[in-house]
Design a protein that fits this description.
The structure is a homodimer of 317-residue chains. The longest helix of chain A is centred in the middle third of the chain and has 18 residues. Chain A is globular, with a radius of gyration of 18 Å. In chain A, strand 7, helix 9 and strand 8 form a beta-alpha-beta unit. The first copy, chain A, has two domains: 205 residues, Rossmann fold, CATH 3.40.50; 91 residues, Rossmann fold (3-Layer(aba) Sandwich), CATH 3.40.50. Chain A is α/β, with parallel strands linked by helices and 317 residues long. Helix content of chain A is 48%, strand content 15%. Chains A and B meet through helix 12 and helix 15 of A and helix 12 and helix 15 of B.
Chain lengths: 317, 317
């Protein structure tokens, strides 16, 4: 792993013209409820609607001409799929995207919109990996993994770098954790650019493999019982060591708590975030004493949600 | 009517420290769909979640100490209610808000949160006016009408002024029309600050009184069949003459078209807008040839929506 202060700065320059510098929002009423000063880094406004645009762009831009000529490939149920298809379109190369047939239609539409070629598979990790291996073998494309890839991690690190630049000194930064690409990138950016800031993660209790991995010291398997469908994946062998070393704590939250936090963001910030994206705020609200009076950066990871499902989230709440 | 270029500038300075200078957003994908360059002025991010904060604040700040001592009062089903209660809180005076008992709970909560005293009435204009007259008689408070008030209109004009400052030259500005406070203020700001820009309005076809009033040359009564519940009111004798003189055209749109536009804003801009707020974009999409290739400013008027109802809007679409 050779992600350094310098390499994150170079990555930031590398992707700058291809991604948004997303705004940082604050809300007086959320601060009152939370009892701390929260700075929301709005990656829901990012290209493709999620921070994934950063890592996919950085990793693609680092490939050689020869590699690019054969295309880029990945398996992803969602935002990384669109991000990689978009990178392919920008760079003028083919993108091959393996997606579970159960992936949200909005995300499949997004991939097709960027000219990505979709290969549907069963919604299991085995089927995803087998299908991708076949595609890669046939095309010679380079696989760019959604999170277990140092160039992707380096790209995601640029998000926390911007947050620090916008919000000023922060006591703690809270992000979500699924596969750990964003969280490990965030932890590295904080380590290099603001070493006294703590990094904490929120995780759905229905998929608390990162929480358990931090306890056991090894990668634990994931369950998959949460509405935060972007956070179902297990940590990888490249993300886990970074997280184990640099993340102070993982706070788990229930689906009820995630929905309440998502509602607060929709109603008070007037922005659309997906359930996974509300997990860090849910963590802060669950453990208020820990954050009391502090300056807290929260990374809002994405805003891609099937609006048909939204009514169900809020019904009777 | 003595709203001038100078008075709008003074009003802007008067309210500046009490309201947000809201951002102007753009979306490549919406521009592609619409066939023009749209600059969205995001008053859904405004204090109280709507442009109404501007007019209520301006009108309240223009009252004398003696007037303020007796409080401020209004009838409103929604955003103006919260805006006036907030102005009362900021100025340390009582606010008396007459609201139909059917008004959304989120808006009543907002009023109470600002310390406003709510008087419930029947959901008819007669009941609203009678209840307000009684409250004003008893308390001596000054009525600040939601739209048929020159100081309110002058305050709403500051929104289009900011849009011009942010977006640069615009060929046309499109706003919604209900009672006409925002639209008449917008028309006056454009007249003074960018006289070559056209002003167009979108109106729900289920409540097309402004459209019919423009044809007949007199104020026509409203119907009330639309999901755009912020636009049910009829033009007033102070707003209509300004609109009649300065607004080029009113385009009517169906509830279906409003929901489709609202969905586009939620999905592409990742921001929460209320149905009324989507009416101008619906108008642009309905009449694309009229806006083709132009620089179009759209005022997104507010973001206060009952999330319980949202699922129904999008179900099966």
């Amino acid at each position: 792993m050779n992600i350094t202060r310098e390499s994150i700065t170079v990555a930031h320059d590398r992707i700058r013209s291809y991604v948004h510098r997303t705004p940082v929002l604050t809300s007086t009423s959320i601060n009152e409820i939370a009892g701390c000063s929260i700075f929301f880094k709005c990656e829901n406004f990012q290209k493709v609607g999620a921070f994934k645009a950063r890592g996919a762009m950085n990793a693609s831009l680092k490939l050689s001409k020869e590699q690019l000529a054969k295309g880029i490939a990945t398996h992803s149920s969602g935002n990384h799929a669109q991000a990689l298809a978009r990178a392919g379109k920008i760079l003028g190369v083919k993108s091959y995207i393996v997606m579970p047939r159960t992936a949200p239609e909005i995300k499949k539409r997004g991939v097709r919109g960027y000219g990505g070629e979709i290969f549907e598979c069963e919604p299991t990790l085995e089927s995803r990996e087998a299908t991708l291996a076949e595609v890669v073998k046939r095309t010679g494309a380079t696989e760019i993994h959604p999170f277990n890839n140092y160039d992707v991690i380096e790209g995601q690190a640029t998000c926390a770098k911007e947050l620090l630049e916008e919000a000023g000194p922060l006591d703690v930064v809270v992000g979500p954790v699924g596969g750990g690409g964003l969280l490990s990138g965030t932890a590295l950016a904080i380590k290099y650019f603001s070493p006294t800031t703590e990094v904490v993660a929120g995780e759905p209790s229905g998929s608390d493999d990162a929480f358990r991995s931090m306890k056991s010291g090894k990668i634990e398997p994931a369950q998959s019982q949460t509405i935060a469908d972007g956070l179902l994946t297990t940590l990888g062998d490249k993300t886990f060591p970074v997280i184990y070393e640099h993340v102070k704590e993982i706070i788990t939250v229930s689906d009820e708590e995630i929905i309440a936090a998502m509602r607060l963001i929709w109603e008070r910030l007037k922005i659309i975030v997906e359930p996974s994206c509300a997990v860090p705020l849910a963590a802060v609200l669950k453990d208020k004493s820990k954050f009391s009076g502090k300056h807290v950066g929260i990374i809002l990871s994405g805003g891609n949600v099937d609006l048909e499902k939204v009514g169900k989230f809020f019904e009777g709440k």
